Fold each of these.
Amino acid sequence: MKKIIDYYKTSLEQASLSEVKPTKNKSLQISFQDYLTGVVKDLNEETIDRLFEENEEEIDVFLFPIQLQSGSGKSEKRLYPLIIPASLTKNGELKHITYGVPWIPRMLLAPVENSKLSVIGENDDYLQFIESHSFRELSWNEYTQLTTELFEYVCKQKITDLTEISWFKKVDEDILIFKGASNGGAAQRIVKLYDSITKHNGELPLLNNFLGNKNSSTDPNLLSETKQIEMDKFHLGQMKPTFGLSLSQREVVRHMNTLDNGEIIGVTGPPGTGKTTLVQSIIASNWIKAAIDQKQPPICVVSSTNNQAVTNVIESFQIDNSQGTSFDLNHFPDFSELYSLKKNFDLFEDRWIPELDSYGLYIVNKKKYSEASLAAMKAKISSDNSEYLERMESIEFLEQAKVYFLSNFEQTFNKKDCTIKQAKKEIHRWLMMLSRDLHELIEFHSNEKNYKAMIAEMNNLLNEINNSIDENQLKVTMLKTTCFEWETFNSKASNILDIIPHLKQKREQERKQKFCQLNELSSIEELESLLEKERQITQALSAKKEQLATSYKNIKNEEKRYQLLLKRYHLDQALSYDYLNEHLDKTIRYLLFLFATHYWEAEWLISIDEMNEKEQLPNSVKTIKEYQQRWIRSAMLTPCIVGTLYQVPVFFSYENKPMFNFIDLLITDESGQVSPEISTASLSLAKKYLAVGDTKQIEPIWNMATEVDKGNILKLLTTNQDEMSLFMNTGLSASCGNLMKVAQIRSKFHKYSHLSGGLFLSEHRRCLPEIITYCNNLAYDGKLEAKRKEEESYYKDKLPPMGYGHIIGKMMRKDNSMANVMEARTIVNWINDQKDRLLKMYNKKTIGEVIAVVTPFKAQKIVINNELKKLGFKENEIVVGTVHALQGAEKSVVIFSTVYDFSYKGTYFFDKSVHMLNVAVSRAKDSFLVFGDTNIFSLDGKSPSAQLAKIIFASEHNAIHGLEKYNRVSEGNVQRIEGVPDHDDYLKKLINRTEKCIHIVSPYVSYYTLKNYCPELLNLIQQKVIEGKEIFIYTSPSINQSRKASYEDGRKLLEQTGAKLIDLNRVHSKMIIVDKLALVDGSFNWFSASREKDYAYYNWDTSIVFYGKDASEMIDSRLELLEERVMK
């Protein structure tokens, strides 16, 4: 284990040495003298507006004192051999950031595996320097001096002397400043924890299991059905009464209840399957169990590397009773003693400690603590600000809280003059009673169907036993009679001779023989033995009868008790077990959670009161034990502690001493986004571990280059290349590893071996079935179950669940990224035009609640936001960004801006893995719309985009019409045509003007349309063919499968004209090319669009006509495209 700990420590130290790629819009140049003095002299208003947000007075920046370049223009590349993190104020002052350490990109430090660049130093020298020098708090002069010394120590030359590396040459003497923040400081606390782990002599069972377990089997090994039902008795709580757990969520809770210290469960949670609800249920159950057992509350921590994931979790623990209770009071249990509680249920749901507004405590860094978004959140602390806990544990607050608690308790329970301890005792009594009812309902339901059979069987057994007893009694009576007859016979046959000793025995033996002969007995002794044996049999049968009678009575009482419980909790006797569990989630388990809440509030008040009596308030933590006790007290009020994995080592250490094995349950959310070197250290602090995530959604952001990682593996773990390759496939690697992958393999239980192991949440409730089916087939082997059901009327007048809009745009490079201005402009204009309709459709107040835009490229995000601003949308009114922007979120409508145009020949970014489209599509509840050049899509193969294309192009009804109207048409050789009549007229005009050939691309073909509305057009095509004109008609058979007969019959009509029909496997835009002189491109389906005037898009369909010189280059590329995509 030590080797891999050293490997992770080294990886983290080197991860902060990653490259930073500045962009022009967030950069400025300063002189070397300004760098040395720490004052930027020419910081004008334009630069300040560009770099600083409205409320920012100070920003994090990187300084690049050496700027190298290779190539120029589009092929230009930059290299920055020294990167200096700092902060910059609006006044132009440069400052050192606490623990901020300058670095040299790891790719430039040996050892590196197969690097193309020359190295300029040794990584060991760099690490030796920073470990032997303090970067905690420095003046600017001290910082620049130390930076100079660092560079010279590692690179053996001065900063100003480095002028080239390989083919990169120095291009500027100035210093480049770029706005951005380093995560290196946060990672240092994890590095320190790794240091402590290597020095720790005690047991770390969880960490050892995670790193040392060599068993990689993921064969299914779930608990038996009987055992799983047994585990339901230990599922004690739900935090909300709105919904019960799904079957797969319940399966996870059951298996979690078997977890021992050092054990792990990995749970794959695809989008919309209720990961947060699951986490809340597990935490609630542990909290309630501790209350019932009257033990200290468990320390439960939920963490991730993703800030948005952590924010989503902490928000889910916030208390909001503004809308009233969602508990169905019709299902409130029939306890006369709780009449007052039922009457005051809204009060019962509130917290009885003032100012407490959450079930989670947020642990954050100093900067996050001060963010405006957290201003209203009370339950939060940072490493240097524990004001929340200090206020809670003050004498003033204690007295206020005691009065507040008792006032709420007495009103809720209709009691007077109670003490906190009396209240706690009463609450605990109800915890015991409700948990007993829960246990019995589960137990009795399991037995309920056997009651009649068991009673009937017992009656039969009792009858058999009674008969046996009667028969046996008869035998005993007969044997007793025989014994009496012997005694009489013996007495009568005796005389005075029997007093002579030597004759007595002989005479008695003769009498026995005679009596036995007369009664056909073998001996008198056998008679006595038979009598004793029959007596024993009678006693045994009587005991068995008594035992059966007791069991019979118990079963009858149990049945009676079950009927009482059914009545008490308003349950139907014929209910299924799944329904029973769901009902228990929304009733008893929720009530148990509320009772536990107030139990812990009372316990907290008692513990603080005891500290006050010992004059320990205000509380000043002076020892690690006192620090741990504060966490335990905190867990009485907030059962969940939430923070990033960078903060967990900070808060669960005291004076740099980690609290190993202190956290009872560590849960990582979005574990599929976590690189293992960041998370593994925290496992040393915990006893049990639950990883929730999905390796098929967003991947980790790896800060380690593969070449560097390979060098580290070969140096620190193994010198064998094959072993190195095997290690990189385990999920433990720092350059391609995944916490979720490791947790799945290490999981105590497995459900589907072919889905990488662990357990699996399968019920999806967010998206319409048409949407989630795509994700299900793409990433989850069909194991997801679409649970959202809507009536057919729901779809009326709504956007297609899976749709597309064709946009004629051009992809361009912008700030090391890609953008498509026409596509962005079209999307924004469409949103603007559809805004009122969408708000009405979804009954929302702001368009940002309805729609979001996802794109693969950051540059496109910027362009779209600029276009939104031009049309008057507020900043951030609509979420626009890469898939990370919608982390854990959902919108009714999601637009996917592809950016690519048909001229691009490489692999699309969203086709490199299933991750991007899986995330993007699954964010859309009602409609996922692909906006872009539809020519980029192929219907062949199994790539993510090909699978998407097969769905969105399966029906003409999936098309978004009229987007061409947003194209800005100049006065030159470009014009626009709109509506059905204009398109028909223009097609006839083009056919008439054709001199040599015309290419008509109509992916869809409709027999009804051609037969009833296009006879004139068909005759014209036939006439031109006879005249010797070449007319090529292109269709796509694969997207006409849902209307195959109409397509094939329509195709025959076209063939009868003499035109040449060509099948395509790809192109989906509807275009016409005439003699290489004119190009028409748009959304109009030439041979399938309805010509009826009540057709919804009769006047919407739009096409753009390019002709003359403007069209020549476009035509050549489109013809080449058609040739490539002809079906072979």
Amino acid sequence: MCAMDVCPSRGCLLLLVFLLQCYNPVNCKNVGPKTFVYSYTANLTEDSRPDRIIQSVKAQVSVTPYLLNPVQTQIGLIGVGKKLLHVEVIFEDDNSERKHTKIEAVAEFKSDGLLQKLHIPTKSHSKITDINIFKGIVSLFVINENFEAGREIDSSGACQVVYAAVDNVATEYNHIVIDKQKSSCKQLQKPLDVWRYSLLPTAGASEAKQMYVRYKINAQNKYLVHVMAYEGLTVSTFSGLDGTEVRFGSWQELDLVEVIYDDRKAVNTEEHMLMDPNEVAVKITGSPNTFIHLTPGFPLKQTTDACSLNYQLFDTTLDNVSERIQPPTLQQAIEGVRNNLQAEQMGTMQPLHAVVQLTHLLRCLPNHSGAVDLLIDATSLSPPAIDARLLYRQHESWRDQLVEVLIGCGTPTCISVVLKRLEALTEAAVVSQPVKHTGHAEVELARKMLFNKLWPALSYMREPASETYRRMIACCRPVAIVINQVICLTTLSNLWPYVINKEDSTMRKSLIDLVEKFLIIDLHPNASSDDLTLQGFEKDTAKNSRLIVGLTIAKNLKATELIHLVTKIALGSVEVFPTVEATAIRTLVVLADEEEHFKLHGSNVEFQLQMNNLKPNVIGKLLKAPVRPENDILIGLALFNTLLELDSSPETISFVLKELAKQKRWPLVRVCRLLISDLCANEVLSISTCNCLGENASGDSVNFFLCDLGAAGGWSGLSIKKESTDGQAIFIPGELFNLNDSLIVKYELQLLTGVEGELKSSNLLVDLLNIDGEGRLFEFNITANGLDAFAPSLNVVSLTSGSSFDTVGWINIGLKNLDTILPPWTVFSGGLSDLLQSFWSTVSTPTSLLQVLRPILDERQYRTFAAGWTLIIDTFGLMSLELSGAVDASVWTRSGRSLIRTRLGVVNEVNMYVVDETEKSGSALIQGFGGEVEFDFITRTKVFDLPEGICMSMSRSNDMRILRWEAVHPMPSFQFSRSKKTSFNYRDLMNSEDYHILHSANIPGVSYDLGLNNTLRCNRMSGRNLW
């Protein structure tokens, strides 16, 4: 059969000729065969030093287009529809390991000019870093054919883009210029080696990006002549704090050098008539391909310098650890920080900066048993270093702070040393013996080191593994002395929320069993000798101290399993101190809010019964006439506060206030109104609720509804916002520190006094506010009972009898710093003779009560650039806190002063560097800031002038110092390596060769307002407000 029989017309012949030339069903068409050769440069800089290039790349880029549209005859790269681009990159920069390296791939584009997928040869074994740079180059060819706004995927991620013509008329050079702006980019991959630990309301290293691309296109032949891309990244080293931004700039430039023709590039279409684009890509590259997208991957650092908390990502089967890590280097580094860890250095900046450097070093130790042994030898903190002879040398020494450094290090290697020390000291302290004084000096020292230092420090451990937690419970369970068991239980309760893999119910049950006996009210006549509730031996003050401990730990644990015991104390008819009852009421609402937690650890049926009755019971008890009117404000305020958290609807609140007014309980009504005013001022209650209750939180009259408060809202004196003239309830807010409204530290003092003016409770709250929110920094609580016994009108004989609540004074202190509570501490219990006796033993020189050294901000984040670079941002913030106290009293004048001094030091350093697998990653930039401050809280008392004979003052007598710095030169992280001499030297913050001081300020001291009545009392009492 002839061709004319099949195709008689001339048009059909022409079509047949075309099909013979392009036989591929996908209409593959090689253009020319034409190759576009470009020169490519890219660099990364930081704005404060634009002359210093952090990273740079030079390469030759060859692009050969293969059109997939038979109708298209255009020979350029833009506006040609569906196509394949064979991209080859040959690196030409100074990186010796990357120079002359070649990477190739076939980019498949859709008809709209956007990338569909990238075919990369499986034979390619390029590093992730090089592949990312290659993706950054290919991304420059992603441009919408019609310049339409929309969503595009390239090396910046999935972004929203808009286009704009800079000059939409052909220029004298026959070029058009198009700008593209990218925003709201979302990464399609997530890094593995990240962590975030923050005790502050901050987003850490927050960012802001600017991304622009400018294309120059030949208007006639659609050649892509020139591309310039800019990406700006602003990293805030501390979110919301002005002046802590670091700005990076990344530039990419692609310039057309020549267009060449190379027959070897052509694909013979007659041989690929049945090939799809995937097969064409295989033919072009000569290798099987795998498909990837353009979003950059996240390279991991080398195992030898990983220095990461994500130890599981790196190879831990390292041999000859002792050859890689020279013991003298480790010992030298630890001894070098010895002076900085002395107790007198707590709360100061420069020693903290040295500890930051030591922590980075310790994290570079591999997760290996050999490294644990070397660290034990270097620190002498664990067996066999712990023996009777070394106990004397280690007691109250700098090694107490060294333990906290290891806990802050957080790696399995560091924690292993700490756990070995815990188990060794537990054995040496013979904790199962209930005798406080054993007669053996070594045992006494071991107990002090264990319970005064080690157990409290363990509260700062983060995310302990379940096995670690079990080992700690095993060390706490046999402790026989009550106060020591309180210490270890408090630590375990602090750690419980952070335990990893705590599905094992037996671990939770063993912990609850230890706490339960602290909440038992009824005494057991057949109790064993070490039972906490031994009948006939437990005084009322001791029982209430025990209950305070149980409530504090149950609240911290959110122990819904114990809700029945807490309810009995809070809402039952048991006889406990009013302050303990109020504490139980406030604990109850926390447990009632843990429904999901209760389902995991308790009977859901029992929980629902408790919940269904809780709100009516709270309201019922609140509206019931008090048995002891002098406790009405204390108990009533706790119940009202609980009701607000259970049900903050204005209808319920107004009903309760109206009923209280009917009962003419005006002091309680007024205090409740003060509380509402305070919550509305702090935006805890909604605007509609505040408006309804008459607080006028908003002038918006739309849907404004005024609640019926009855007589409770009719007396304007009930809702005034200043302190009470009768001294029964005081809410005093203020600011400790305000940096341009970007970082605020505020305080609030809440005081509650009895009818005689005696102290019942005092709460000092210190919060941090910034753009990311609000967080509690510090909480100091005092609960008291029976202090009216010291009023001068009472008979002195009755003061010392101790026969009833009314004649025995009792003071308990609670302290919380950040997320960690300290064991409640009963600082006084007894009558006037006990008070006078304590005057004789007072120390007027400030004595350390608490020392804390812990991380407050610790995270690793990744940021990527469209050019392919990956920036790691390591942030490490450290806090040093010392709380000291002193009493200066006179038995003769029955007066005295007490001091609580807080010294605080903070250092936060951010290390930003680009990960490069071809060489050791060097630091691009190190910036940090820090501060140190000292606060004094002084109380002056004249016993026989009470209740007027007491006044308080809070001041910052010394200057507050603030510092910001930057490393002068890039500083690589320390490596333990065979190939290099391993030595470690600390860098001095004040050394101008190492650091450049960006900002330094000394803020003068100041006194803080603690209320009008307090000021008047202080003026009448006269005396010094400085220590």
Amino acid sequence: MGERKWTPEQTAAIGCRGGTVLVSAAAGSGKTAVLVQRVIDILTDEEKPVSPAQVLVVTFSNAAAAQMRQRIGARFSELVAEHPENQYLQRQQMLLSSAHISTVHAFCLDLIKSNFQRLNIAPDCRLGNDKEIALLEDQVAQEVIEQCYERDEGQFAQLVELISSGRDDNAVVETLHTMYQFIRSHPFYQNWLIEKSLFYEAEVPVAQSIWGVVILDYAKSAVEYAVSMVKKALEELSGDEQMEKAYQPALESDLAQYVAVKNAIETGTWDDICCVLSQVKPQRLGTLRNYGDDGKKELVKSCRETAKNIIKKLAERQFCATEQEFLEDIAFLRPKIETLFQLVRDYDNALMEEKRRRHLMDFADLEHFAVELLAQRQNGGFQKTEIAEQLTRQFQHVLVDEYQDTNETQDTIFHCVSREDNLFMVGDVKQSIYRFRQAMPEIFLEKQHTFQDYDGQHYPSKIILSNNFRSRSQVTQSINYIFSMLMSREVGEMDYTQRESLVASAAFPPKEDAVTEVHILENQDSAVDDTFAEAIHIARQIQTMLESGYTVTGEDNILRPVEPKDICILLRSPKNKAEVYIEALSEQGISVWTDIRGGYMESVEIVTVLSLLRAVNNPLIDIHLTAAMMSAVFQFSADEMAQVRMYDRKQHLYLNCLAMAEEGDEKCRRLTQTIQRLRMVGSASPSYQLIQNIIESTGIWAVASAMSYGAARQANLQLLVQYAKEYDACGYKGLSGFLRFLDNLEERGEELEGAPAFASENNAVRVMSIHRSKGLEFPIVFLADTSKKFNLKDLSAKFLLHSYMGFACVSRDLSTRKEFTTVPLEAVRLELERSTLSEEMRILYVALTRAKEKLIITMSPKNIEKKLASFNHSLGEDKRVSPYIVREGRSYADWLLMALLYHVDAIPLCADCGARAEENVTQPESRFIFRLFRGWEEEPKAALKEKAFVSAEDPLLVNQIQSQVQWQYQNIAATRLPSKLTVSQIVQLETEGEKPLSKEPNFLKKEGMTGAQKGTAMHNFLSYACHEKGEKDLEQEISRLVSQSFLTAEEAKSLDRTAIQAYYQSPLYRRIKRAPWVKREFAFMVEMGKKELEQVIPQIGENKIAVQGIADLIFEEEGQLVLVDFKTDRTYDPGELASRYGEQLKLYAVIAQTLLEKPVKEKIIYSLYQKGEIIL
């Protein structure tokens, strides 16, 4: 095996010793090979012997750690074979297993297991799975929030009002979870809360606050750009008398006003800036008639519009408050933020205590327990503990891979176990794409900006690996051009200079058709979706490549015909789109593979099993039983369902099925027997065994195998069994609980991961997300769907978090409930927008650098002519696209067009689109092919529709249609009235507007039996129980209700026995026992009109509305009626219950008197929570 030739930079990275070194390794630069060779050189150096146990190598995936172990082991085997006499090599090879090569979490886990006694955790503490931890977090959050409600003295309620948007506290729970996850990326997160709360303590002038500094810095560059845009417009019209007459007065007025804003920002106070901005009043442009140069006209107007939008945004957003208003906002927010931060502390304490009790940890716990063992907080920094000092002495070399994806907590761990002379960090900040996992690329960037270039003597130092051993020069040159035009410290968090440029260093045979292509699709058919159009286009391009014998380089460095496995289609967000590409490729007969695993809960096979599970859990719920009956398992048709329904319209479907089965209906017999059998299985087996039984016994397995991607569907079914098994293993038992767990996942917008859709063979085109492609490479890459807008909706949230600027949120006038943005929120939004766009820039870099030999970019922009014209003025003085304009881009297509507009190869495209690319940046080493597709060359197969023959117009028919279309119903007002209302809805209409935003705490709605579900269970008991038996033996009566399916086991467990016993001892119960006539669950439906409902529905007129409801209990006493309503509301205030439900009982009384023809003598609310009655 020949010796590998290393570049000078690689040689330096492999051999440098004696100080901290950061290696910035560009895509395809061989960083993994460098890292492996460095470890081998360290372990084979007999002059400075190092045991494998003295080397710590940290990677960020188990697969990467395994691959590194394998590479090092294989290289040692080669060395030992070459030098069999070398005993040192043999000894090192034997000790290789003692080398610490692992993920950061595996290292932390080993450290914790060795020191568990110092952490007050059990020795058998285990790592919980994500879903188990999520369930526990929800449970603890409910408990903590409930405690806050119980002890609230006003501030917590105001916090809920501030961040909630509806009539519950969902936003509070979401805020709690988001904050907790965010702060745990910091090593001493409790101190983070203290530090950031101080921002709201001191009354610092807004311009000197951490938020004001950010806004002023942004405003300065923004206004400078606005001024430059107006000047550019004036230059454009200079000498053109017609345009000067129409446009120059307004533009000169704009310029004077914008210069005044610029001066205020540079020399004035905050209030001066607010005042000047509020006085900006752009003049109207004059009329420019019969002007021949539309391109010039659009350029001037576009420059002016850009400048106007900049100033408008500053006035409305960044300078949204004066100095005094800022101080008022801070004073208003201070107590709410203190309350929120205390809530987070309480949640942290409660959650950690519950985890300790259950012997559980999550991944963040691993990192923080490690920090607790290794570091002590000291004077704003940290000091190493004795354990850290021991590890520092043990490890002679500490190497960290993918350093750009570390967070602050992990960085602290690495510095605790290393010295100033032995830390070696490798990464590429341009490929840092995991900020959503709390990665902090700024840690890498700070070192890259401050470390000096490596010279072998001075440390800390940096080495840049820019040689690319992956891609053809045509690919690297196009990438270099694009990012040299776009990437900057403002967007991308670094300047893409010559040092960062890729240097093509791979050997490829010559090839003329490897130039990067940009395909611009103008889909002019509104009936064809852009995603579908792009998918069809790419499928055709691939088909052409395969059929024409397009070549790529084989293993022997000789060109060979391309195969499907050589091609990858990359999507930024493949959810609901990958399937379109799969179908388009399949239509062309091209084998395709994808690992996109979304939509698991919506897949046919899972929906089928879950519908049957829900029917088994409670067959008396018609909607669930209907889904099961009409599934592929039982195959009831719509007509057959109607027959079952009509058998007895008042009965549950299941009871009708039982009756029809006895009469010989075969389908009903099979359905009821299957459900009865499965209920028996479920009563004696855990949920995962029940699911396995369903899969095996109902034919679902065979049905799934016969569908498209049958293997993947069968894998999905097995995954469902596994998910249920994991749920049971967490200590949560029962089918009801598992189904509720799935429902809660859906409510939170979370998804279980499904199986990948495998192709029938390995030789298949890949369709994958850009994130999943990181670390991979493909001869041909199609980057598709680049016109998709960036997802910036999180920036519109009511609260935002930033590592350095802390917490920011809206302000609110609690009397009017109006929300207002704040200076802190706008400042944090600016920085998060910049960070988010920088992340998108890096994701684009990752996507483009996956290509080895051919890169094809597709886009479907709307109105390409107007878009190109809007970018015509985007060049800065450095001949790069202005960072401000890049920041305004909202898709990859926007960015790519900004950059490519000024390439010499784009001149024909600009001419075709009517754009004026007068400033061309020529790049002789980079070439692009632009292809503009307008409409369809031929109609796509999947879009073919039957075309109707068009006959001559029939005037009589036209008149008839017009007459029918123009006809109006005379009693149109009645159609806007509800045909039916419940009593509760009527009462709600009467009290509309009186409820606070957060009437029902969210802890009543989450995992476990919610408050509503417990209340329903109690009502079911009161309705269906034989109370004479219950009075004698309550538990036996509850068991009877469970056995007869009136209650589930979990509902029975939730019943408040004390409240029931108190009811049995109450005077009201004794009155009911003596009554000659008692009616429980009295259901009614009556018609009501103007007399009863006019106050609620003023427009009712002479119309009637059906009113329905169910009264809990009515009994007769002395020839009159007593109306009883049972309530489980958690309140000790009788007046609150009377106020809340009094109107409802009044309406019940009116209806009962009408229907039963007896007067109502008494209306009673019986509170099970207060264990007493309230007489109205």
